[in-house]
Design goal:
With 747 residues, the chain is mostly beta strands. A hairpin with a 2-residue loop joins strand 12 and strand 13. It starts with 15 loop residues before the first strand and ends with a helix.
Length: 747
């Protein structure tokens, strides 16, 4: 055969031959998703990964180039024998013998047939290939996906084209060689990458050689999502009994999906939970619904709703919606699985529209609340803002460095009973900041004007009261630095700060008066006293009260930095010196006549990447007693080596200890636990006790949770969380990971 006659069929001379069109599909390898690298830390290296030669210099497209020890031709058939190797890009085919018919475009490989593409390997004794149509058949094939730690075998692997493959008598696992702790078996498995669909018939999952799931027909996506049932979960609790969840997933569109989950509880009934999600180019959101007909424990229907939305409809515009509803005050306690959610007394509903320009910004807020505790009188419930409009400007800076700023708001307060009305508040500021590396000095003068228009007020009260107030502050501070040679820190700062505030007294008790002549506020409250309170212009939250002030805040801070500028630790201490009584108070509160505030301090430490600590303290010097304090200590080597210790104290009300952790006993066994106890009430609020076992390809987590939301209740609610994870495939049971994340892993 002349070189011209073999053009396109073979190239080169001697022991090299080129055959056209060999492109074995890789759709077989697309079933399970990519796992995190540390997921396989307990696994032995795959034998298939060792000794895999890497293709060098092979072309990415075109015909596959073959070499062999001996090449011959009889009629229309090429015969390659001994060390047959074919390469193209990442593809590599090896065999002892290869027979190729030039007329039929068929090839037959025999003896140790190995096909590799990247980290994917297929081994068989014989293979029949139709090179031009990318079809073929491998008998008694074994396969490996070394990058996903998957191995398996099939009686027959059929390549039905570039996008479709069919496997008969297939089984695979992510376990090490010689370990079949779990297996997925199927009579047949069809994989179609073009349709993004896999279809398994008579499939079953075995764990420890015991079948745990059987699917006569199973359809699943090769990538992304697909409509169908998800893996069910089982749990147990004293308040709900045995729980079985059967989630059904609906892949509506690439950017929309929904999940419907019947939650069957032997003591209560069936709670139907629905979730709808959408993700568009300029907005995203989620709707959650739940309905329980005739809760046999509660004695009535139960329901809940939550809708969250955020969007950017145009440049500079932002939208946010958060709407929540619960049928009763006990719903979050019974189904929330969290002490934080079970203690909520009001559910907020809010919608926001913001606009941000280069020099100014504006926002529109609609806000309401659902009061879960129906025993609260209407006059003790929060006001609705229907609506609130805010506007602020970026500071205008003159050539001399003067900064002029403006903020304003108009809000309508509504409630079913009592005094209601509108409020307009305008704040103008003029400051002259002087800043340098060694310190700063910021004098600031502000003028606040507030106007009300009230309804349902006392006949003797002013229905349109107003208030004008000037405010003056002088903020100053110095920064001293020194280099340290001991330890890891190389630089320490010492930062003294003085903040003077003067606000004249204005009688504000008669700004808002209800129909009974009682002084009220729409949104003002007194926040917890902390270090940041030392430098606020108003000691109250909200606008209805602006505190009178003639005071000086003194503070001292120190910081430690390493050579890279990372802050290792900071500590701050300060208090306020008062030069006059604070006569502006909330309704019913007495005048504050103390001459000095409590000492407040805070410490933040991150001396090593694994070890962190935070402490806050409020000390009453007059009584030589601690008013409030918190301590949070955390050691986190990694996600499975976490220790956490917290202490919370508030005089006469709160004294709690919180200890939690996850720690390995051996490379495979870990213990998890949490103990939250109210020392004041001598009652345990929550405990977690559990064990985790992890092998190369599977793990099991079992956690018992006991909790009470009311320390006066003697009996603890009890629930059992059990989760079995088959790595690379699925998990079965209640999501223990979500419980651990909330109670232990969360910062």
């Amino acid at each position: 055969m002349s070189p011209d006659e073999t053009a396109g069929k073979c190239m080169g001379t001697g022991l090299r031959i080129c055959l056209p069109g060999l492109s074995l599909v890789a759709s077989l390898w697309g079933v399970p998703g990519q796992a995190a690298e540390d997921q396989w830390a307990l696994c032995a290296p795959s034998p298939a990964a060792r000794g895999l030669p890497q293709s060098k210099g092979a072309e990415e497209s075109g015909a596959m180039r073959f070499s062999a020890d001996v090449i011959s031709k009889q009629g229309d058939e090429y015969r390659l024998q001994g060390g047959v190797v074919g390469e193209r890009g990442e593809q590599r085919l090896e065999a002892q013998r290869l027979y190729y018919n030039e007329q039929t475009d068929q090839a037959r490989a025999e003896g140790g047939v190995r096909y590799r593409i990247g980290e994917r390997l297929l081994i068989s004794d014989t293979a029949r290939l139709q090179l031009g149509s990318d079809t073929g058949e491998f008998d008694a094939a074994r396969f490996w996906l070394t990058n996903r730690h998957i191995r398996g075998e099939a009686e027959v692997v059929e390549l039905l084209g570039e996008d479709v493959s069919q496997l008969q008598g297939v089984r695979f696992t992510t376990c090490d060689e010689g370990d079949d702790a779990w297996l997925l078996k199927a009579r047949s498995l069809r994989l179609d990458t073009a349709a993004n669909e896999g279809i398994a018939r008579h499939a079953r999952i075995e764990f420890m050689h015991v079948p745990i799931f059987y699917f006569p027909y199973l359809s699943f996506p090769l990538q992304g999502r697909k409509t169908g049932f998800l893996v069910p979960s089982v749990g147990e609790s004293t308040v709900s009994g045995t729980e079985l969840r059967l989630p059904w997933y609906w892949n509506i569109a690439p950017n929309r999906d929904a999940t419907l989950t019947p939650r069957i509880m032997t003591k209560r009934g069936v709670l139907l939970e629905g979730e709808f999600r959408y993700l568009n180019e300029r907005n995203q959101g989620q709707l959650n619904l739940a309905q329980l007909k005739n809760d046999r424990v509660f004695g009535d229907d139960r329901s809940a709703l939550q809708f969250q939305h955020s969007g950017e409809p145009a440049a500079g515009w932002r939208t946010r919606v958060d709407y929540r509803f619960a049928s009763d005050s006990q719903y979050l306690t019974d189904f929330g699985n969290s002490l934080a959610t079970s203690s909520i007394t009001h559910l907020e509903r809010r919608g926001e529209l913001d606009y941000l320009a280069n020099t100014w910004s504006a926002s529109l807020l609609l806000q309401g609340f659902q009061t879960l505790d129906k025993s609260l009188p209407v006059t003790s419930r929060p006001y609705q803002r229907l609506p609130q409009v805010r506007m602020s400007t970026q500071p205008w800076i003159s050539d001399a460095g003067l900064e002029l700023g403006f903020t304003g708001e108009a809000v309508q307060f509504e409630r079913a009973e009592g005094v209601v009305g509108s409020r307009v508040d305008v704040l103008s500021t003029l400051s002259w900041p002087l800043r340098g590396a060694a310190g700063f000095l910021v004098p600031k003068l502000s003028l606040r004007y507030t106007q009300y228009d009230l309804k349902n007020t006392s006949p003797t009260a002013d229905a349109q009261p107003s208030r004008s107030l000037p405010l003056f502050s002088l903020d100053s501070g110095l920064v001293f630095e020194r280099e340290l040679t001991a330890g890891h820190a190389v630089r320490q700062t010492l930062e003294p700060r003085l903040y003077y505030l003067y606000v004249p007294k204005r009688d504000q008790q008669n700004l808002i008066v209800d129909e009974n002549g009682v002084s009220r506020v729409f949104d003002s409250s007194l926040p917890l006293f902390g270090f940041s309170q030392l430098f606020r212009e108003n000691r109250f939250n909200g606008v209805d009260r602006v505190g009178d002030a003639n005071q000086l805040s003194t503070a001292l801070s120190t910081r430690f930095y390493d050579a890279r500028g990372r802050e290792l630790m900071s500590a701050s201490l300060g208090r306020i010196l008062y030069f006059q009584d604070r006569e502006v108070t909330l309704p019913g509160a007495p005048v504050d006549t103390t001459r000095r505030s409590d000492w407040v301090a805070e410490i933040n430490s991150r001396w090593t990447p694994a070890l962190s600590a935070r402490a806050t303290m409020q000390w009453d010097a007059s009584d030589s007693d601690l008013t409030r304090g918190t301590l949070d200590w955390r050691y986190e080597k990694d996600r499975r080596r976490v220790l956490r210790l917290a202490y919370r104290f508030q005089r006469d009300t709160v004294k709690q200890v919180d200890v939690a952790g996850i720690w390995p006993l051996t490379p495979r066994w870990r213990v998890v636990g949490r103990w939250l106890r109210s020392i004041k009430d001598q009652a345990t609020l929550e405990t977690l006790k559990g064990l985790e076992y992890e092998s190369c390809c599977w793990s099991v987590r079992m956690v018992q949770r006991q909790y009470r939301t009311d320390p006066s209740v003697d009996e603890l609610s009890d629930s059992l969380w059990l989760q079995l994870e088959l790595k690379g495939l699925t998990s079965v049971g209640r999501k223990v990971e979500s419980l651990l994340t909330r109670d232990i892993l969360a910062p």
